[in-house]
Amino acid sequence: MDRIRIRGGNKLNGVINISGAKNAALPLMIIPMLTADTVTLHNVPRLADVRQLQRILQNHGVDIMTAGKRAGAAENAGETLKISAKSIVDTTAPYELVSKMRASFWVLGPLMGRMGEAKVSLPGGCAIGTRPVDLLLLAMEKLGAEMVIEQGYVIAKAKKGLKGGHIFFPKVSVGATHVALMAAVLAHGDTTIENAATEPEITDVAECLVKMGAKIEGIGTRNLNITGVTSLHGAEHTVVADRIETGTYAMLAGMAGGDVTLRGARADTLADVILTLQRAGLEITTNNEGMRVKRNGSGILPVDVTTDPYPGFPTDLQAQFMGLMTMAKGKSHIRETIFENRFMHVQELARFGADIRVNGNMAEVHGVQKLTGADVMATDLRASVSLVIAALAAEGETMLHRVYHLDRGFEDLEGKLSAVGADVTRISGA
Ligand code: UD1
Questions:
Q1: What is the pLDDT confidence band of residue 77, given thresholds at 50, 70 and 90?
Q2: Separation of 174 CA from ligand 1 center, angstroms?
Q3: Which of these is catalytic: 126, 300, 356, 383?
């Protein structure tokens, strides 16, 4: 198993290229299942989760070809995938595959939309709370699917195809909104989705669906109106920049100090995060290239944060923000409202000497003047990078174990950080 060694103390200066968003790329790779034509996706990040989803889709008979570099493409561009689901050869998504990545459960939507049947294993995924799928199933039921759960599988059928319906989500869910959209675009008749998630990744997927011929109104709002069509066609789409990666590098730069440009960043998808980081004393400006983040000399100020669905502060940046607050000049409060049990990084941050007290879904972070390097363990995708944030400012050496969590969601983290002056090395092997 690979490890990452970090020696703290270096400032970060230079340019970091922001990759395509993992959370957009995954559903964008799934929606080509809705058509027999080829969908071409540009700027797909090189991530373990993307590779895993490729395997899962291939199991359904989806062909995925990685195209060579395009003429004129930016040097930082991700991969181009040509995805073609000429025929769906298998409507079962088995436990061995779905349990490795939660988002693969979302194939339920297109399988039902195109084939009217699906057998999908209940998911596993990150250990950040129970993460049920009741809302995803509610959406399918409202679209006329008949479902049973047997031996850990959801078995769904709609003999005459799905039909449009009214879906009201009592709670905002990214996954449920994706699945509802994917299923409704090919249903007979009209569908309304009330209290939909508005995350930029949903917008990206909806825009690609429209390019494929889907009829969707209200994109980017809490209410989506879909008019079902009989078929979709091929399209070409570029994955939106990763706002979570962007926010993470902004915090890494804020913690280490220095001046970095986050090339390709979409500041418009990070308004609340930018405001929060500015309050914490970071200088953030936007320009044609992306976003520039500076912290020179001044310390980090404590700021209270509550996670919320978009456009609120993202839960996927909560651990990183806590990492930043460990060295703030005073006390901050971080409240997690999306997932239970998403404070697993607290005990690892404590190994650097951080002072964090947890009470239910609230963490009180008492800023300390000094962190010291330690052996620490990545526990989940976002938590793992909060440890890198602490390590960059810590005195001495940190060894980060179980970095496969990082590889699921951060493309070439050590390469990107080394290029701006951090002392970060991957150590391959057992
Ligand atoms: C997605 C993101 C993940 C992010 C999360 C919240 C991807 C691949 N993953 O996950 O990185 O942290 O959004 O922004 O895009 N819930 C239910 N019932 C359901 C579904 C969800 O109660 O059927 C609850 C969850 O337990 C959680 C909340 O709703 O408390 C939000 O979860 P959801 O938005 O669905 O997260 P994911 O789509 O799994």
A1: confident
A2: 5
A3: 126
Report the sign of the C-alpha dihedral through residues 311, 301, 379, 58, in that order.
positive
User: For atom 15 of ligand 1, which residue has the closest CA?
Assistant: 23
> In this predicted model, what pLDDT tens digit does every residue of 229-251 receive, in sequence order?
999 999 999 999 999 999 999 99
Q: What angle do CA 258, 397, 387 make, to 5 degrees?
A: 65
E strand segments, 273-381: 283-287, 290-295, 305-306, 331-335, 355-359, 362-366, 375-377
Residue nearest to ligand 1 atom 8, measured at CA: 23
Rounded Cα gap, residues 57 and 104, in angstroms: 9
For residues 26-46, average pLDDT: 97
Amino acid occupying residue 11: K
Q: In what order do the strands lie in the sheet with 215-217?
A: 166-168, 190-194, 223-227, 215-217
Judged against a pLDDT cut of 80, whether residue 125 lies above it is answered with: no
Q: H or E element: which one contains 427?
A: strand 423-427
Note the pTM of the prediction, 2 decimals: 0.96
Q: Which two tokens stand for residue 317?
A: 């940046």
- Which protein residue has the closest C-alpha to ligand 1 atom 20? 133
What is the DSSP code (8-state) at residue 339? Answer: -
Tokens describing residue 413: 């983290």
Whether 285 and 308 have beta carbons less than 8 Å apart is answered as no
| Catalytic residue check, 126 | yes
Mean pLDDT confidence for 164-183: 97
Helices 108-115 and 134-142: crossing angle in degrees, nearest 10, is 20
Domains by residue range for the chain, with CATH? 3-19+241-427 (3.65.10.10), 22-238 (3.65.10.10)
Examine the pLDDT at 293 and tell me if it is beyond 80: yes
Residue 6: closest CA among 324, 395, 379, 353 = 395
